[in-house]
Task: structure prediction
Amino acid sequence: MSKGGVRILDGVDLGVAPGEFVALIGPSGAGKSTLLNQLAGLEVPDEGSVDLDGAPLTCPGSVSYMPQSDLLLPWRSVVANVALGLEATGTPRRAARKKARQALVHFGLEEFSDASPWALSGGMRSRVALLRTALLGREVLLLDEPFGALDALTRRGLQEWLIGVRDELAATIVLVTHDVDEALLLSDRVVVLTKRPARVALDLTVDLPRPRTMEVETTAQFSRLKARLLDALGVVG
Amino acid sequence: MRRALPAALLALSALVVWEGAVRIFGIPAFLLPGPVAVFEAFWESRAMLLQHAVPTAGEALVGFAFAAAAGILSGIIINRSSLAERSLYPWLVASQTIPIIAIAPVLVTWFGYGPTPKVIVVTLFCFFPITVSVVDGLRAVDPDLIRLMRSFGARPWRIFFMVEAPGALPFLFGGLRLAVTYCVIGAVIGEWVGSSEGLGFLMIQDKAQFEIPRLFAEIGLLSFMGVSLFLTVALTQRLFAPWTLKRDA
Result:
């Protein structure tokens, strides 16, 4: 894959099994966003292909995608924002809103249903954005640095929340992140990409026991995995 | 109400200074009438003034409605098609350099003394700020938002109506507020050039007959009309798109 003559991805061969949670990590400008755009069907690779269930992915609309910023619409209430994806794909408004309201109740956010997005904290906005994406019910969920813009404490809260709701989402998840701890805490597998043109530097299985809590970060096993990741990223050693 | 207080106080003190100056320096009413004389002239001729205010307001409103429709439509076309942007936009900009007051007489010879040429003048005065606001508003929509909608699998027309059009509303209202202040001026200019009714028509007559206090009353009435229209647009925005007034919107 090249863009404007610059080779961005170079032979990235990556398989993700159904139900797996994979974290993609790599230096800034490594081509993570390009890869994610291709996984979302927003861009088509010049060479090679992205396959979903054995069929090549050539247009958007098959997988769920959550971008870096929450992008909540200020003219829609929380419940209407959650329903956006469904309404965008032709679900009648009433049915979409009903489903969105049920989802908000299910995820314990019903008290915010009729609030305006500007009344929410950053962490709450991210939860709403994740729900909006998840409500489409597609089997693959792409998260592009979903908590990147949040402060460290809020971020922790959301990571714990995501661990808690992971099973409810019942999806294959691909998470792009800069944060080594976040990758290890959340995922089953961490894939490290090299600098441009990106290749797979390390494909690490995270065999930490589940269910996980924040305490897992203090274990020796976590430290060993983290050392391997940092090594592959070229931060240490 | 409390926010309107400074503006009201300023207006009041200006009126007091004006009246005082007229009295102290003994300025004759045909040169500069004081506010009291102006109000007396208004009160004496109130029935006639209000009767002539109706066609002027009508021309301003109809012209503004046409301008809004034309401005929104041309703005969307220019946004959607780069060919239209390159071919149409420069000429729309160029059209704004033509003094409308110069083509108003031509419009009268084409369309007569009725309301049509006035409505056209108002439309010409008002549509351009609306076009620019729509073009800028649609351009300012966050591209990530459009990518998000595409990732959902949304069709282009749904992306337009669900995200782009509402996203452009803060800009559109800015354009409408600007344009609505021009529409009364447009109607008066249209009436100056050739008409048999309206406040613009009365102004020409009163100037010729040295009815200067009534001329000032007409100016005051026109200004009142313009401010009312502006407040109506602002109120519409507050009622139907309150989020456009939020700082983070």
